[in-house]
Amino acid sequence: MEQGTGEVFKVVPEGSITTPKGFTAGGLHCGLKKTTRHDLGAILCEVPAAAAGVYTLNRVQAAPIKVTKDSIANGGTLRAVLVNSGNANACTGKQGEEDAFQMRKSFADAAGVSEQEVAVASTGVIGELLKMDRVLDGIAGLPQRLGGTTSASEDFCQAILTTDLVQKMVCVSVEVDGKTVHVAGAAKGSGMIHPNMATMLGFVTTDVNIGRSSLQQLLGKATDLTFNMITVDGDTSTNDMLVAMASGLAGNHELTPSHPDYAAFAAALQYVCEVLAKAIARDGEGATKLIEVQVEGAESNRSARAIAKTIIGSSLVKSAVFGADANWGRIIAAAGRAGEPLNPDTVDIYLGEIETLKQSRPVVFDEDAALEYLKGDTVVIRVHLHLGEGQAIGWGCDLTYDYVRINAAYRT
């Protein structure tokens, strides 16, 4: 059993994005990538599913975002989401937009669903037109590759990866009206991660019976506390998208804010988003460590979130963690430049359980113990401001030589 935000739910270790009733998924290689790794995938629901989405706040937005917004706005339901990797279809002008809409129509025809109930997502290199002959050939064969098995879900997860080293998927169950409801998620993201909405790409499936507005509200809140609290490199993508689909096939009474099990479902959804967000941070390009920043005693939760993200996004903090250097000065400096209320005389800083600063004064600590702690694969930085009750947690990763190597030649 896992403790979510005060509610109990159960992790389903063998679960996948097809565990919720009504969903199938799959992927294949259509030729957008130079390798033979899958680069085209889809999730399909056997019934119209209540849909919600959050998108990048980058003013430069890829063509698939326009298509998905259009699909969800038209009735608030989806039957499918089609995803390609290897090409972002961003900054591709009118042709790119036409290609994205053609992808929607072609998959709708192939899967036998309404064109307006298909979302489209893309990830990869910016500024290159899609090889549409390969995409359309892949779409034609994709419905036959969709299934409800864990293997089929893994094929989908592989199809959405770019520089990711690992697939990211999680599933939990929670009781609603005495019915077992499943919530599952899959995501991709490794570089160009500094979300102002979600992650590079994320997909949530659930069989709970819920209306679109309630789902949108819950997804937005979960996003603020999870995907919006991660950073790898400070860059917000042109393609960031998180889409949730609820089939309603669990058989519960419609979930609304007044439902007694609303909080339990919200906790399960937030947990799924948190697991995926942390997996993205841990899988940051070239990363060797997950960094968790806990901010306590801030003036407000909003202020705590801003400070946590500033610390986790600091190149100097990230570099110090990579080098296992207990340089608390970089941490307090990052907190101080976050633009939030802070008393420079009342800050405490811990590295794990090792106190390095108390009331903004250096504490004599065991440097060897700190070195050993910072060599671990997870580093927790705790900052207490002693100003109020605000708190937040952010996640990121260390900054390594490999990050530069990977991104110095991303297009080639």
UniProtKB/TrEMBL annotation:
GO terms for molecular function: L-glutamate N-acetyltransferase activity; L-glutamate N-acetyltransferase activity, acting on acetyl-L-ornithine as donor. Its EC number is 2.3.1.35, 2.3.1.1. Its main location: cytoplasm. It catalyses: N(2)-acetyl-L-ornithine + L-glutamate = N-acetyl-L-glutamate + L-ornithine; L-glutamate + acetyl-CoA = N-acetyl-L-glutamate + CoA + H(+). One of its GO terms (biological process) is L-arginine biosynthetic process. The record marks A198, T199 as: Cleavage. It is found in: Cytoplasm. Keywords: Acyltransferase, Amino-acid biosynthesis, Arginine biosynthesis, Autocatalytic cleavage, Cytoplasm, Multifunctional enzyme, Transferase. The active site is at T199. Catalyzes two activities which are involved in the cyclic version of arginine biosynthesis: the synthesis of N-acetylglutamate from glutamate and acetyl-CoA as the acetyl donor, and of ornithine by transacetylation between N(2)-acetylornithine and glutamate. Heterotetramer of two alpha and two beta chains. Belongs to the ArgJ family. This is Arginine biosynthesis bifunctional protein ArgJ. It comes from Paenibacillus roseus.
